[in-house]
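pasting input
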Amino acid sequence: MSIRSTVMMWGLVLAAGCSHSPPPTQQSSGQSAVEEARAEVRSVVTDKARAAQADALLLKLLQAFDQASARSEALQKRVAELDRHQDATEAQFQAVLAAGDADRIRELHELAGIREQLALLLTPEEWRKSTAARRKLLELQLQPQPL
Amino acid sequence: MLVALLIAYFASHLSSDAASPLLGDPARLESVLKHQVKDPVRLEQLKALVADLKKADEERKKLRGTAVKAVDEVGGRQASTAAEMEAAYGGFLEVQRALRDRQLALRLRLAALTTPAEWAAIVEEIFPPPPAPAR
């Protein structure tokens, strides 16, 4: 499951929880997840200045997801291409995978930093409200998944 | 929602990061091998290899569940720092890398146990060419 499709799935989860929304198309559900997150921040954080800061951080977070998704897809394509060759060596695989690992460490650093800034920006009550919705997705993610 | 997005990101990393897409679905690979490899002696060796792959896949699923819970726990706590988040998930990346090395070793054994013609047929069946564009 790619990051993009996971976020799309989250969009579907959100839409399913909202009885007034029409069923989303697959193309619209990823965008729906983004917009839901931003709307949630706007409704939870009533202070306008902090709401704007939180919104900017959330956009940064979502851009980082998008870049990570593109890098992940490119990596998978490179590994799949290598896979086609019977004589591909361990060194060739490791070189490609090591580049992916380095990207992942950078992404982790960036995302953890954005999360920390958001946590510092919100009050405990705002944090509680803006993270309450995670349980449903967590349950979905804990179900067995194919590669 | 904020933590939910992080969970989605980290969980998807653990789902999509196979050492080799050829090994991504051991049951499918087993079926393709049975279909393409006619030599019974090598087929038995390949089946044993697939059994090892299935074990590695089970470990991957368990690792994924543990990592997702850790992201939820550390990421959901407002007081958690970026360093704590990186430390919690970084440990899983190390374990995942070791698991990937095992899968890669199995992929190299798989290549060594098949003939070039069998390999070509296996790849063709697992990675079918994209459909030709419509005129």
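fyi The CA atoms of residues 14 and 61 of chain B lie 9 Å apart.
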